[in-house]
Specification:
Layout lengths: L2 H4 L3 E8 L4 E9 L16 E8 L3 E7 L6 E8 L2 E8 L2 E7 L3 E8 L5
Antiparallel strand pairs: 1-2, 2-3, 3-8, 4-7, 5-6, 6-7
C-alpha cells in the first residue's frame, strides 16, 4: 500500500518484534464503498482494521513515541527496500525494511458500545 492509500486510516499501534527484525503497524478507519471488494467486506460493514508488516528491519531510530493520535506513515522506495518514517505528535520512528505486506485485516460494522 502506498502512503496515499493510508491517508484515510488512523495508525493506532506499532509492534516492534526485535527477535524477527519486524515491525507491524496497525491501522483502522472507515470502509468506503469503492474499497469494499478489496477488503472482501459484507455490504453492512463500514469499518476496516488491518496490519502492515515490515520485515528485515534495519537502522531503527526512535526519537519519540506517544500514544497520541493521529500517527502518519511515509514510505520511500530505496532500491528493493523502503525507508519508513512513522510520525505524529510526540512520535518519530524511522527504519528501513523490505516493502510492507498486509498481515491481516478485519471488517466490521462501526457502532456505539
Amino acid at each position: 500500500m502506498s502512503t496515499s492509500d493510508l491517508s484515510a486510516f488512523e495508525l493506532y499501534a506499532l509492534h516492534w518484534d526485535e527477535r524477527d527484525q519486524a515491525i507491524t503497524l496497525s491501522f483502522e478507519g472507515p470502509l468506503e464503498e469503492a474499497a469494499r471488494r478489496t477488503w472482501e467486506a459484507p455490504p453492512e460493514h463500514d469499518w476496516v482494521r488491518f496490519h502492515l508488516r515490515f520485515a528485515a528491519v534495519d537502522d531503527v531510530q526512535v526519537r519519540g513515541w506517544s500514544y497520541r493520535l493521529p500517527g502518519r506513515l511515509e514510505q520511500v522506495p530505496v532500491g528493493d527496500r523502503v525507508s519508513v518514517t512513522v510520525m505524529g505528535e510526540g512520535t518519530d520512528v524511522r527504519f528501513t525494511s523490505a516493502p510492507a505486506v498486509r498481515a491481516g485485516s478485519r471488517t466490521s460494522k462501526a457502532g456505539s458500545l
